[in-house]
Amino acid sequence: MNRILDLQEKLRKVPFGNRIFSGFLARFAPYFTTIKPRVIELRTNYMKASMKKRPAVHNHLKTVHAIAMCNLCEFTGGILMEASIPKHRRWIPVGMTVNYVAKAKTDLTATCDLSAVEWDTCDEVICMVSVRDTSDVEVMNAAITMKVSDKPKK
Q: How far apart are CA 110 and CA 141, in angstroms?
């Protein structure tokens, strides 16, 4: 099992374990902490994460700021890559295309599914992340391009 999935399994058994796990993951890139993401579900090739609509992530319209939603997408795609990629491979984001579909007026949930990825042979993965509001309306989607390669031999 992957080290991230191992940690998740261990923390499930303690009070506030998911909150601790989510906070730990947000520290992979410190700017993730600005949106206070929460992992709802994480398993190999699938992740669902959320963020609260709160004043710190508002834009001038008092909706969730576009870049806060981008952070949620990158958090979801990046953590999923780390939790899913085989130990002998590595990844790095090389591009992101986003579409803002509707105003984000509520808490948000992002999902990404990589079940179709051929991990041992791919050199690129496109993480398709969908962000939805509490009415299940898509407010944003992102295609995050991840370069994948073998780790150098030691």
A: 9
